[in-house]
Amino acid sequence: MAFPWIFHSNFSGGVATEWDSETDTASQMSFPHYSHLATLPDRHATPFTGAYCCKLSLTGGTATAILTEADVNISDTATAYFSFNLFFSENFSSSSGTDVVHILDLIGSGPAVTVAIGFNCAVEDLTTQPTTLGDIFLGTGSGISGAVPDTFGTLPIERGQWYTVEALVNIETNSSGVVTLYINKAGDVPNSDVYATDTSQTHIAVTDARFGLVNHAATTTGYFLLDNFICDDAHIYAVRQRYPRNVTVTKTDTLFVGPGVIDDVNLIVGADTNGILKFYDTDVADINGDQNLIMELRQATTNSQTISWRGPPLVFEKGCHVTVAGTGAIAQLMNINHTSAYGSDALVRRLGISKPAIHALGVTS
Prior knowledge:
By secondary structure, this protein is mainly β.
């Protein structure tokens, strides 16, 4: 297991710079700020965590919008685990009911899609008032090439709700490969119940992953949100709380937006000398020139150690953005208090709607 994960993308700052490349010819992919999501009618439309997430908009076209990463490698007989957060808009619909959309493709030599994870949206019923939207089901599929999701769960995915989707992927070239999906709805007690599984599959070794919007038809419309993509060689598991008071941070991100206070901080570092933790008062990841810098903890010796801050509480007005640098550095933030926009989607959206909306390219309106 790499530290802390083999690959992790949280779209911090409204960018996807962790990925090798982005392909989006029809401008369907964006990385909106919570203030933009607050202008949407969906009452839970916020990032799963932080101030930004990834948004895929299906507006009647068929163009692909994907992120590609070559650090996702799975050799024959190896097992990898994936996790990401997923949210469908409340108006997400299909007028055909036959459209199968890919969210995550695992690709091998060719290039060829050997594992596909995605969803199907059943046809809407226009005879009812209002129109009854078709159920959404997640699924997976495998093959030596051209894999498409074809094994679906039986529990519909609710619109307007965040889920954590996990996948166990065992790559085998001898007809014994397995792909298993698990889902956890935000707010529910995390479980390890199998949602869908594909067994006795023949794969090829994986060299790349693509994540986003693939293979959709013009008859499926609406948007969906993605957040916190993780790949590792150990089970990742769903988070127990979206708004915990004590947080462990392994990657740069915005911890909360709006005013708040942090009472205690630990910087846990390894044997190197490059562990640095910085706190900024910003909700737009503005770390230029350190004008928003509140506090910095820095590793001073080569010994594994815990560096603690037990001084006056750290007070933030705009939001708490934390940068983590160094080999094996972990931050533990304890007692997040006195927040006005932390604890529920409604509080985040209330703050967001009071601010000028920040769109994907940083433009305000």
